[in-house]
Please model this.
Amino acid sequence: MENAEDDREQGWRDLQQWNITDKDVVVGIAASGTTPYVIGALKACRENGIVTGSISCNPGSPVSEHADYPVEVVVGPEFVTGSTRMKSGTAQKLVLNMISTTVMIQLGRVEDNKMVNMQLSNEKLVDRGVKMVMEQLQLSDYETAKGLLLEYGSVKRAVESRK
Model:
């Protein structure tokens, strides 16, 4: 939507639709670190006792001032001015991947280096899960492992059912 990023109030209104509370953490993302939508949302979060983080690509940016945990990934000027997806967007995506991976580990969805509590949303993931069940339970029969996985819905629960 045109001009949406210039509205300091809209970010907080959008967040309220998700019923956020002080048990949540909100991470604002703004390549320049100056986007009013993001700054306004973070400011309102802090006023409501919600922990905040930010990811920007300029040191000492305004968005960092409104975050409890700012991350500034300084990548320098874009190769094509105005195309923030090239360097800034890529850097921010890497940081988001690190954050989401850390969250999955902390939630117990990863054991060793394997996602043991993943959504079984396609055949590739089911096959991967079956192989993990086979390995962890030392099963040689694919169909038995698949049956356990599908019955319990995750590698973690399937393995726990046999221990």
Summary: The CA atoms of residues 59 and 76 lie 10 Å apart. The first helix runs from residue 10 to 16. The mean pLDDT is 93. Helices lie at 10-16, 36-47, 62-65, 88-106, 123-137, 142-152, 155-162.
